[in-house]
Amino acid sequence: MPQYTYRAIVVSKLPDDILELIERGNLIITSFTGNAYFPAPDPTIAVVTAHLQDLVTKNRALEAGTGSKVVVNQALTLFKRDISYWVNYVQRIADESLDNAEIIINSSGFYIKERSTPSPRVYEVKSTDKGILELTAAVNPDGSFYAWEVSTDNINWTFVRLSRLATCTVSNLTSGALYYVRCITVDKENNHNPPSNTLSVRVD
After folding, report:
1. Which of 97, 165, 100, 174 is nearest to 135 (CA)?
2. Is the pTM here over 0.70, yes or no?
3. Among 44, 57, 61, 102, which is disulfide-ready with 67 (CB 3.0 to 4.6 Å)?
4. What percent of the chain has pLDDT over 70?
5. Which residues contact residue 182 at a Cβ distance below 8 angstroms, ignoring those fewer than 6 apart?
6. Do residues 25 and 83 touch, judged by C-beta distance below 8 A?
7. What ranges in 15-123 are assigned the alpha helix state H?
8. Higher pLDDT pick, 83 / 129
9. Which residues pair with residue 179 across a beta bridge?
10. Spatial distance between the Cα atoms of 172 and 179, rounded to a whole number of angstroms
C-alpha cells in the first residue's frame, strides 16, 4: 500500500518558572554538546551558554535585591530566542531523516509534539453484491482522504482502496469469506492517523 510518513514535530516546552527554565536550558546545552546530529547549531553552543549564564547572573542579582526585573526579562527573551532557533535547527535535521526523526529529537533535549487524537468517526461496511463490499466513513471537510485495508485473519492487512469520498466500493473479493476491514485517515500533508477500529463482514 502507499507509504504515509508521520512527521515528528519538535517542541521546547520551556517551563514558566525561571529556575526550572535555567535547569532545562543547561540540559539542552548538554544534549547538544558533542552530539553528532547537530554539528553546526546557530547560534553556537558557546553563545547560547553565555546567554544562559547571563540570565543566571541577572536573576541572582534580582533575588539579592540589587537587580532589575526588566533586565532579567531582557536576558530571558534573548535566551528564549536562542532556543527557538535551535528548535528550528533540530526540526530541519529531523525532517531530513524521517526514519530517525524521533531519535534525533529525543537526543536534543527537546520534546516531540504529541499527535492529536482524531474525533471519533463512524465506519460502516456491508456486502452489497457477490464479491463486493461498500465502505462508508464520515465526510472529510478538511480535504483528508481514506486508505482502506482488508484482512482475512485480522493480522495481515492488504491495502485495497484510496478514496476522498465518504462511500466507496471494493470488488473482486471472495464470496462467502469473512473479511476484516479498517481505515486510515490521511491528511493533506500526507500524515496518517492510527488505523480505525476493525469491522468484520462476510461477503455475499
Report:
1. 165
2. no
3. 61
4. 91
5. 148, 149, 151, 157, 195, 196, 197, 198, 199
6. yes
7. 18-32, 45-63, 69-95, 101-107
8. 83
9. 201
10. 13
The separation between CA 64 and the C-alpha centre of its own chain, rounded to angstroms, equals 43
Cell 464479491 sits on residue:
131
Cis bond before residue 43 (omega within 30° of 0): yes
> What pLDDT is attached to residue 14?
92
Q: At what angle do helices 69-95 and 18-32 cross, to 10 degrees?
A: 40
Taking CA atoms, 116 is separated from 7, 192, 203, in Å, by 12, 11, 35
Nearest Cα residue to 171 out of 145, 134, 198, 136: 134
Least confident range of 30-34, 53-57, 155-159: 155-159
- Residue showing cell 465506519: 123
Q: Does the pLDDT value for residue 192 go beyond 80?
A: no
Largest Cα–Cα separation, the chain: 85
Please give the DSSP secondary-structure letter assigned to residue 176: T
Show the cell assigned to 156: 495481515
> How far is Cα 171 from Cα 178, in angstroms, rounded to an integer?
14
Side-chain half-sphere CA neighbours of 195 within 13 A:
15
